[in-house]
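Thanks for the sequence, V.! I ran DNA (cytosine-5-)-methyltransferase right away. Repeating your input here for the record:
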Amino acid sequence: MKSTVPSLVDLFSGAGGFAEGFRRAGFRVLLGIDNDPAAIRSYKANFPEAVALAMDIKDVTGALIEKLVGRPDVVIGSPPCEPYTGANPRRMKNPIDRLYQDPAGQLVLHFARIVGELEPKVFVMENVPGILDVKEELRRIFAEAGYPEIYFNVLAAEDYGTPSHRLRVFISNIKIRPRKLPRRMTVEEALRGLPEPGSGDVLNHELPSMSPRKARRVARLRWGQALIYYEGAEGRRYPNLVRLDPRRHAPTVLGSSRFIHPYEDRFLTVREQARLMGFPDNHVFLGGRDEQYNQVGEAVPVPLAEAIAWEVRKFLEKVS
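Predicted structure:
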C-alpha cells in the first residue's frame, strides 16, 4: 500500500528552510541536493532521514533521483537568484541572456529539466520577482517539460509570520494563495527569549567580532539606519549593517546581510539572524561563520515555506 504521506525532493536545497516548512506540513523529505558542501552538511544534520547530495545540478538526472528515492509527489527548489536580481550590479542587460547565457541563470533550465523527468504532481520553484522579466520564456520551458499551465505566485514573507521582509515569486503548476495573517511579527518578538550570546545553551549563538573603529561607528546608529550602502543594478543603492528597529519586521535577510542589534552595539549572531527567517532554534548551521550566515540568508523563510506547503497539501488531497 502506498504511503499517504506526501513525499518531497528538494533541489538547490541550501540548509533546508524550504524543506523545513514542508516537513511541518507533514511532508516526507526524501532528498536534498546542493553544490555547497557546508550547506549539505547542515541539511544532513537537520534531515537525517533524507538523502543529502553535494552535487552540481547539471550532473543530476531524474533517473538518478528515482533510483535513490523513487518518484516524489512534489519537487521544490530555489535556483540562484543573482542572475535575476536588481541587487546584482553585474546582472546582464538582456533578460533572455540572464536565462541562457549566465551559467548561474541556466540552472533554472536544469530545474525544469529534472521536473520534466520526474513528473511530480506539483513543483514549486522560488526566485526573485526579477525573474518575471522572462515569464513568457518560462511558460514555454515548463510547457515543454509537460506543464502547460503555470502560475507566478508573488508572496511577501512578512504576511505569513516571518519577522523580516522578503518578496519572492513561487513558480508552480498550481495557484498558491495562502491566507495572510492579521498582523506582522516584529524584531522584538522574534529575538525574545534567547540567552546572552556565547552562553553555550543555543546552537550558532556566538558573538561575531567587531573592530573598535566599527564599534564606535555602530554606537552612533539609530534604529533603521545603515552603516554602509552598496550599489546594485541600474544605480540602485542597498543598505547593509542596519540597526534593526525592534517595533517593525526586519529588512530582507540576504547571505551578505549583517544586522546590528536594536539595543546593543553588536552584530546579530547567526541564531538571531535565523530567528528573523523563522528557523526553529534546533535547526543547526554548519561550516564557517560566513557560510552559516549565508545559509540563513539564502533560505526560503520557514513560516512562508510552511504556508505554501499547506496549500500544496490541500491540492494533493483534492486530486488524490
